[in-house]
Amino acid sequence: MPNPIHQVTFQPNNQTVDVFRHGENLLRVAIAAGVHINASCGGNGGCGKCRVIIDQGQPESEKSAKISPEEWDKGYRLACTTKVVDDLTVTIPPESRIDNSVLRKDLGQKQHTLMARDLNSLVQGVKINPAVFKYYIELPAPTLDDNLSDLGRLTRELKNEHQLENISADYFLLRRLPRLLRDAKWQVTVTIVYNPKGLKLIDIEAGDTRDKNYSIIIDIGTTTVQGQLLNLNASHQAEERSVIDDLESELLVASDAKYNSQVRFGEDVITRIVYSQKGNGLNELHREIIKDLNEIIDNLVNKGGIEKDQISHLVVAANTTMTQFFLEIDPKYLREDPYVPTANFFPPVRAIDLGLKLPDYVHVYTFPAVASYVGGDIVAGTLGSGIFQREELTLFLDVGTNGELVLGNCDWLVCTSCSAGPAFEGGGLKYGMRATTGAIEQVRINPQTYEPMLLTIGKEKPLGICGSGVIDAIAEMLLVGLIEPNGKFNQELNTDRVRKSETGWEYVVAKADQSAEGIDDITITEGDIDNIIRTKGAIYAACKILLESVGLTFAELDSFVIAGGFGKYINLERAITIGLLPEIDVEKFMFVGNGALLGERLVSVSREMMGEAQNIAAMMTNIELANNMKFMDEYVAAQFLPHTDTNAFPKTMEMLK
Amino acid sequence: MPNPIHQVTFQPNNQTVDVFRHGENLLRVAIAAGVHINASCGGNGGCGKCRVIIDQGQPESEKSAKISPEEWDKGYRLACTTKVVDDLTVTIPPESRIDNSVLRKDLGQKQHTLMARDLNSLVQGVKINPAVFKYYIELPAPTLDDNLSDLGRLTRELKNEHQLENISADYFLLRRLPRLLRDAKWQVTVTIVYNPKGLKLIDIEAGDTRDKNYSIIIDIGTTTVQGQLLNLNASHQAEERSVIDDLESELLVASDAKYNSQVRFGEDVITRIVYSQKGNGLNELHREIIKDLNEIIDNLVNKGGIEKDQISHLVVAANTTMTQFFLEIDPKYLREDPYVPTANFFPPVRAIDLGLKLPDYVHVYTFPAVASYVGGDIVAGTLGSGIFQREELTLFLDVGTNGELVLGNCDWLVCTSCSAGPAFEGGGLKYGMRATTGAIEQVRINPQTYEPMLLTIGKEKPLGICGSGVIDAIAEMLLVGLIEPNGKFNQELNTDRVRKSETGWEYVVAKADQSAEGIDDITITEGDIDNIIRTKGAIYAACKILLESVGLTFAELDSFVIAGGFGKYINLERAITIGLLPEIDVEKFMFVGNGALLGERLVSVSREMMGEAQNIAAMMTNIELANNMKFMDEYVAAQFLPHTDTNAFPKTMEMLK
After folding, report:
1. Which of A298, A323, B192, B355 could hold B290 in an S-S bridge, CB 3.0 to 4.6 Å?
2. Residue of A165, A166, A171, A365 for testing the chain B interface, max B β-carbons within 10 Å
3. Does B150 sit within 8 Å of A340, measured CB to CB?
4. What is the pLDDT of residues A522-541, one digit of tens each?
């Protein structure tokens, strides 16, 4: 765990919390610490309710019409527009306070752990040795006594100067070679790609262009497609170090994400597989995802201010269905018993052969898969989370549209998957949305008034609610008694926030006048709650069955790694409260963000890691949950908040009393 | 040397010759034996001058209006329409005889040696192990307990059943895999290609198609493009044998040839390289040769009665310039000092990437080259002639538009090339033509009357004269005194066959009334003779310089292998007479036909031979003749018939006396 950068002490409770990011939002710090402050506008300074008084230290705050000059001089600030850039002592004035009788300091103070990403502790000893690398060489010009072929001259020099042997050349490169070498006066930079069968010369440029070497990594999710542009030159400069502290911050040039355009053919993979069987369906779906990748690639290139011909490599990780759509391989048999993918290991493919608008020499490395529902994204996550290196028993959970799990250590790995549905990505919920600007991501409910306190992403007016927000909200509703353990509303409470609409009972999280323009009351319905209970029940049951398949229990886990965009600001305590996560020591949880991108970054900078990815895919044993009766039993038992087996959630039951 | 099949004894000279081919033409046997028979129509039965009497044995003869029924009963036949299918004794009646005072029995009887192709004696121990091979496998259908991916199932079976490991799969194959496996009820034939980096699965077909496995080999010459369709299944059946006697007869399904369409951009490589530098020239020339290949491929497929999807592999050998045009690699620097090719070793290229109309899984193996003027065709010829296996010192000579030479043994190889010009392929001669139907290929001249005796290919009326015909003619003209050693006509002879035309002095080989319709008098001009003298002088000088470069002389050669279409019916004695070949023991000469196709056939059936081809290209040292002053001296010295150094040609000088 990294060292805290600042500390904030909240008064009157004298509660001190660690802050790990310089400039962290003060409202977020307060919520994470379990200090409740009024806030109904999502954090954009609009409601003026989150007033605090700075007693000690110098934060960065924005002036606001809600704070008079006199108040400003007395130290009044809006927490939502205040950044922690110093150690602080902060008093919550009475008007901002809500009753904190249900605060649980022990859990609250630990929540930052989940946001810490310390790659050092995940994957050890990554040797910087990118699969795609550049060398600058100055060749002697040919003479009658030394009129070796152009390619022979190049490979001779690469062997003599850099000990690179058995290099093959890309055919398309050969066509550019003779003119370029001479135009460049024999001073060129070559790009070489490593794949398990050897080294291949894929590009050549005039002069020294070693500082222009980029890789693009893409995670194709069923709902979301995410891409990153990485500067491989940065990794090159870091070559002397045996370990990189934070690959993302060192390599990342630009990020981009968008919804998977295939969504218009169906929300989930099954619907899309069905569509692909009609007429030209497979090709349509393939072109749709290629179009998305081309868009993301264009955006990354623009954001990064680079040229496309500086991209050397494309890495793609996806679930098995998305992988087969991406490669235009019929996914029909993925959904038919006995659920057989066409391939688990994919040959390198020339990007242009897939319709990608990239230079002809760019090849795609596609992460290997394990089974029909344990794809390359999970192999990438397993790689990135370093399970395969450690003795400790780790459970890796990636929740996207499906829930995929890996359990094991350096000696063995088992995996499984369950249908989670898109609820945690905002799909299938009345006001659900992806975790982007305007999404309500944190919710606290006043146990007396049932008024909510909201925090939105980007601190804009609320547009909808994302996965972590809905988990927060349901947990809070359970804790304050708005709903029963079966997910049904308590209809006897004195609040207009709980109401019956055409679609049934619901709770108003944000009223229309507090929401973004054009957005109606944002509510959570009983249907939404059912949806979340099904989803969390499936995931919990899958975790339990996977452990049981190797004779283990939750108690024996040394580490529980959570990946997936939904969990970016997930509140551990709340996730346990609803029974999504097991009630184990919260110190064992670790959040790694997007697992696929994490593994893809490793593969981009290290060919050893590329080899490990292949090893991981080959060593993983898949446990099929389809037609598994034990799983069905566990699933049904988990259709309750937190669970029908209350013994498994003693602390949660204590709180609910 | 193979055993003779028949013997023919000619009377009245009691001269016996061996015949190595059942059904050989009797006129050809007579000429090869040095027995001169009148014949001016080219061998089509039209002139009726080649009458012979069969004394013993049963030939196959066609009836002719030139032989009366009474004569037929007495045994009269036309030699040109008689096939040797039995041992024969034949009398040449006085009316058919020409004076045979200049016959040289010793040489004449050996001429068949040159036509014998005994691959057994060229390359030893070819293990049949094609680079492209097929396996039939029956896979267990997947179950929930065994739901390995389709590709994993295939490779598991190939490993278990056939010990094939580390097989990668062609991306395009993956796209067809899932449907095909199920349609075929898991009984499939896979096509696997070996390349130096490993095994690659390139095709899969339903059921057992092992008997449908074809390879196409192409020799791209500057003037002529030749192709053969090989049945790799035949090679498979021969697998138990350690050695194949005659690859061509065992594998060959169909042959095809055409002029290189690039000819319209220039006769020689230099002109075409110059053209390629203008505008879109390179692409134009590339498309021209691809068009030729597509035509030849279509013809081969039609002739062979096969489907294109039964073709598994394409092998191409060509000189360096043609190789670069074929791959669309700028050949500019091949012709500029210091004559540097772009590459000597070429990666496998997908045939469709070059514009070839073949299935997407067909890859092209391009023979490696050595230098700008020693190309893959010569590497193939060197491979096919087995030099690299033997202790004996061998000189390999391939004469096409250029003359290319390789000297060495199993320990070392040196090579060089000289500009021969297209004369031996009929180019640049007034009535020159390629060695196809209607070409005069053999010429004898009556020393008293100066009347010629002609044999044409296909025994059609003469259309022109090909390489071997013009060598024959010039040698005969020298021997009978029609021309002087400097190549100039003796203008004092009493014959209307020597005459002065607008373009200078010339000899009429075939008069218009004896030639094919629309063809004028076919003549050999002083210009033609000059052309041939330059060409033969260059080749002889190059042979000599190559030997000298390693301190050797012609006398030390154990073997002299001649490759190239021009030499198909070359008469050794005549080639020595004009000083094209050195005067060494004729037993040392060996003719192998098209050397490129010979090596390509080996590579098609043996991956060891593919490895040897790479080794040969890597071990060959090129001696550059450009700017070589010694070569210039030798070249000038050879501009004489047979040579200015008459001591090197003692027997020829004896005959000329």
Report:
1. B355
2. A171
3. yes
4. 999 999 999 999 999 999 99
Phi-psi region of B534 (alpha: psi -120 to 50; beta: other; left: phi over 0): alpha
A210: Cβ–Cβ under 8 A, 6 or more apart, which residues?
A: A134, A135, A136, A189, A233, A236
pLDDT band, residue A242 (cuts 50/70/90): very low
Tally Cβ neighbours within 10 Å of residue B174. Answer: 23
B169 Cα to chain A: minimum distance (Å): 6
**Alpha-carbon span A352 to A641, nearest angstrom:** 50
Percentage, residues of chain B above pLDDT 70: 91
Domains present along chain A, CATH in parentheses: 6-116 (3.10.20.30), 132-206 (3.10.20.880), 214-379 (3.30.420.480), 385-422+533-656 (3.30.420.40), 430-524 (no CATH)
* pLDDT tens digit sequence for A133-179: 899 999 999 998 899 999 999 999 999 999 998 899 999 999 999 99
Which residue among B170, B338, B371 places its CB closest to the CB of A143?
B338
Give pLDDT, residue B293.
Answer: 98
For residue A33, the distance in angstroms to the closest alpha carbon of chain B comes to: 48
All residues of chain A having their beta carbon less than 8 Å from the beta carbon of residue B333 are 150, 178, 182
What would the 3-class secondary structure string for B167-215 be? EEECHHHHHHHHHHHHHCCCEEEEEEEEECCEEEEEEEEECCCCCCCEE
CB–CB of B342 and A148 under 8 A? no
| Residue A212, token pair as written in the block | 């222009």
On whether the CB atoms of residues B149 and A343 are closer than 8 A, the answer is: yes
pLDDT at B115: 42
Q: Which residue of A has its CA nearest to B331?
A: A178
State which residue of chain A sits closest to B282, comparing Cα positions. Answer: A175
Contact A343 B197 (CB under 8 A): no
User: Contact A294/A316 with Cβ under 8 angstroms?
Assistant: no
Q: How does DSSP classify residue A81?
A: G
Q: What's residue A237's pLDDT?
A: 53
Q: Do A174 and B345 touch (CB under 8 A)?
A: no
Q: Give the pLDDT of residue B1.
A: 47
Using CB atoms within 10 Å of the CB of residue A135, give its burial: 0 to 12 exposed, 13 to 18 middle, 19+ buried.
middle
- Number of other CB atoms surrounding residue B55 within 10 Å: 12
Residue A652 tokens, joined: 């949660």
Over residues A68-75, the mean pLDDT reads: 89
Contact A347/B144, CB-based, under 8 Å?
A: no
Q: Taking residues A541-546, what's their average pLDDT?
A: 96
8 Å CB contact of B343 and A174: yes
* Spatial CA neighbour of B552 closest among B407, B352, B431: B407
B143, B148, B342: best to mutate for the A interface, most A CBs within 10 A: B342
Q: Collect all residues with Cβ–Cβ distance below 8 Å to A96 and sequence separation of at least 6.
A: A37, A38, A49, A50, A51, A52, A79
| Averaged pLDDT, B260-278 | 92
Give the pLDDT score at B114: 40
Whether A168 and B347 lie within 8 Å, measured CB to CB: yes
CB–CB contact B340 A147 (8 Å): yes
Model confidence over B112-145: pLDDT tens digits? 334 434 444 577 777 778 888 899 999 999 998 8
Determine the Cα–Cα distance for residues A30 and A417; give it in Å rounded to an integer: 36
Q: Which two tokens stand for residue B473?
A: 């003619």
**Distance between terminal CA atoms of chain A?**
34
Question: How confident is the model at residue B241, as a pLDDT?
Answer: 47
* pLDDT (0 to 100) of residue A22: 84
Whether the per-residue pLDDT at B29 is higher than 70: the answer is yes
Beta strand extents in B420-510 (DSSP E only): 439-445, 452-456, 464-465, 498-501, 504-510
**B564 DSSP 8-state letter:** S
For position B236, what pLDDT does the model report? Answer: 57
